[in-house]
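User: Hello, can you help with two protein structures?

Assistant: Certainly.
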Amino acid sequence: MKTYHWFSLLSVRQRIILLLTIIISLAIVVFGFLMHRPSQHIESISFTPDMSIRQIAPQLGVTGKSLARELNLSLDVSKNKPVAELNITDEELAHVVDHLLSHVDATAAYYVFFVLVLSGFVYLNLLGRPDASDIKRRKSWYPRFPYITTLIFSVLVAGFYFGKSPNPMESIVKVFKSMVGLYPDPTAKVIAFLFFIALAIIGNKLICGWACPFGSFQELIYSIPILRKIKRRKLPFALTNTIRATLFVLTLLFLFGFIGNRKGFVIYHYINPFNLFDGHFESISILITVIIALVGSFFVYRPFCQIVCPFGFVSWIFERFSITRVHVDMDKCTQCGACIKICPLDAAKGRVYGKKLPADCFSCARCLNVCPVDAVRYESIFKKRITKSDT
């Protein structure tokens, strides 16, 4: 009913924008599928222990160092010897090959990620608040249905249809793995990472809040209207961000061999929840991570995003450069606490009290229709600056 009321209040201009957004989004997705069909696993090629790393690696699209790392060998091991002479069994080789093939990128997925972010951007900036709708009708602004629909699409298509790759978390991990020689084309990995960062800057963490399939899965579970009293309790941002940053630094230290004296070890490989979308759980720790994150989402907002995700940490840093974001007009704000209460994190609190480094904001829109004095808006930073210079 609320969604219908919201739609009925949209102006002609907004309805045209909505229709154009749907048409453009469909066109982009269709174009992406036609131009870049999802990559298929290389099932026709048979790999045997009689083959060397140098023979196997190119066919899997990885470097010799990367294959050596996956086989639990030193990065400097001979790449010309048959892997059988390196004490690698047929079962071990088959397991590693299956794991590496699960990382094959589906290029069409990038078009889907863009469309998901585009949907969030248009909704938050142009459609969520009907034109000429006054503050008395604020409860009809930003209904949850468009957001929930986008999240479901993200989980089903960007997640289960395309599988674990690509995703925002993997994009940053692969950049650093490229630096130690685990990927043959570092430029491609950097471009993929910059693509996801650009989507985070266009709208404040829109890639995390609206498009990331595992983030969307957590959001959907958290949105189930149960355990509301428990959900009011928020994890301290200082604690969660410290854990997330520490894990990120430790990963780099292990990856570059400063700890363990062996390059190529990646902590995130053992706690990568995106494996859920391929059904590949190479280690029990991955399955445990998925279970804890999804069950924990009934009680805590996006636990994996808050505590673990390296892209979540880096995109939090890049929030300072977001072009559109939640803005609190301090000239209007009465500090009634309505937005702070509804925000699932301490993001609104940080903005109301002027903290330089507030908690992550996932652009979930919960705070955009609760302010009784219309002090909270989602808008461009340029619009905010113009407003200040004019007053």
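That covers the first. Now for the second protein you mentioned:
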Amino acid sequence: MKNLKDLEPHVLDKKAFKSFLEIGFPTKKVEEYKYLDLTFLNDRDLKPIDSNLNLDSNLDSLKPYLFNEKDFYNLVFINGKFHESISNVPNSIKISKILNRSTTSHSLRNLNLSFNIERLKFHFTQNLDKPIAFVHINSCENLDSRSVFTNNEISLDKNVKIQMIDKFVNHKQNDLLNNNIFDIRLDSNSYLDHYIIEKSENLQFNHYKIEIDDFAKYKGFLINTKSKISRFDFEINLNKTEAAAEINGIYIAENTQTLDHYIKTNHKSKKTYSSHYLKGIIKDRAKGIFYASTIAEKNAQKIEAKQLNKNLLLDKTAKSFSKPELWIKADDVKCSHGSTTGQLDKEALFYLQSRGFEKKDARELLLKAFIEEIIEKIDQKDIKKHIKDKIL
């Protein structure tokens, strides 16, 4: 690995770093990374940046990336560091530092843990009167290859219901590697309506581990559009009866982008529910990836699990890889999975052109219709409007 000796002085957790070195960056031989080889990261300088490096002294310049404070709470992270002074934090959140857990079998998580002995915990003790946005801003320039390692825990108490946004953006031109861990814990009968908006233009690797108790529900919505390479890992554990998880989303890849999505769902208890539905639009020489793996344990009877992925390829050089899979150890389940990949309907294009539409306008109309089905799954009207304005 390039500059390994330069990297070691920055390591805070030697055990985690040793585990990372033993595993190394995943290759295509690792099933979960079958379509994404990350060994190119061996040639990068992985040192974490100084979180205050090149921080713009004019914080007003960051305001365009934030949500209107009248309608949203904003928690602002700049180069991975939480800035409470420019955030508007509701009184019901308890923010604390806690020790990180031990190493895992996940290489990129171990790399993150190597530089994070502690993590920030955001503990929600009651419902919020408006959505809360975690806004992650990269604000360094003239750094060709450095890293940001964010590590947060989100926990909801019993019966708490909130709407939350994770938004990732670039303020300055850079080529940072973002390696982020977000562990989410939902207590009994809680509900998290979670929106993830990926608009940074560098390398993005996000790991969401979601623990769900009885009668609690996680509903995620992902918009993935800008990164050179992005990888979203979701590990979902449905731990108790009537736990539920749903992820919907859209990814739009162009030029030479690679947008990768992996969802692993463990049904560990009876009467649990999961549904994952992602759509992709891929053009130029870009690559879109969907890999969903759902496991029903032996005692997970009367569960329901769904997986669906649909892709549109707009150029002959565009590539899509889709692998929905079910691992069923129980005998009383309702499970389904499916995947489609194709091009725009030529007959529909011809029909619209015959009704006076220019070919370009007809294509745009069909693409909007393809996206609209997913967008309509967004419950929060202000968030739906924000997303529509950005991608439609």
